[in-house]
Amino acid sequence: MKNQKIIIAITGASGSIYAKRLIEKLKKHSDKIKNLEVVFSDAGKQVWNFEINEELIPINFRIFENTNLFSPIASGSAKYNTMVIIPCSMGTIGRIANGISNDLISRAADVIIKEHKKLIVVPRETPFSSIHLNNLKIISDAGGIVIPANPSFYHKPQTITDLIDTVVDKIIDHIGFSSDAKEWGA
Fold first, then answer.
1. Does residue 185 lie within any of the structural domains?
2. Which of 47, 100, 101, 157 is 20 to 30 A off residue 73, Cα-Cα?
């Protein structure tokens, strides 16, 4: 699929490495991406700095402040195809599930849902409470795709990056691009 317009949101759950790896792998598909936008929550920036400890340099994408409700990702008329919230905190899940659009991330997710576009949330929490599960169900019922940051082991990963890629490749497949994911039985 060409001319994809994609939003990547990074919230305060642990697991910033998943977002970093997704952005790295999306660069391989830059010929199919018209716009790639990134937005951090305040806690997302803090966790990124703690876990990754390197600046995200905006090459071939823009970074928007989470307070910027005038950015294009806050409007359905901008026609974004996909939003991935990775990692997605349970606070963000709760706001999206209950229609609380009090920042750019929750507003953009609300827009994606109302426009019947693809919302992918990647929760990184354990265990899930019944409140978490109910909110995830609400998002799923609204058409969102829930891909927990649960790596798989059946292809015998050798490195942490191999484990991370089992999740990231699944996300790339759901965005609509081909990934490096190994197929079951292959």
1. no
2. 47
Instruction: Calculate the dihedral angle through the C-alpha atoms of 13, 137, 120, 83, rounding to the nearest 10 degrees.
Output: -90
Contact between 82 and 37 (Cβ < 8 Å): no
pTM over 0.90: yes
Between helices 16-26 and 160-175, what is the axis angle to 10°?
60
pLDDT in tens, the chain (186 residues): 678 999 999 999 999 999 999 999 999 999 999 999 999 999 999 999 999 988 887 777 899 999 999 999 999 999 999 999 999 999 999 999 999 999 999 999 999 999 999 999 999 999 999 999 999 999 999 999 999 999 999 889 999 999 999 999 999 999 999 887 767 665
67/74 Cα distance (integer angstroms)? 11
For 113, the domain range is 4-175
Q: How many domains does the chain have?
A: 1
176: phi > 0 → left, psi -120 to 50 → alpha, else beta; which?
left
- Two tokens at 71? 């950015």
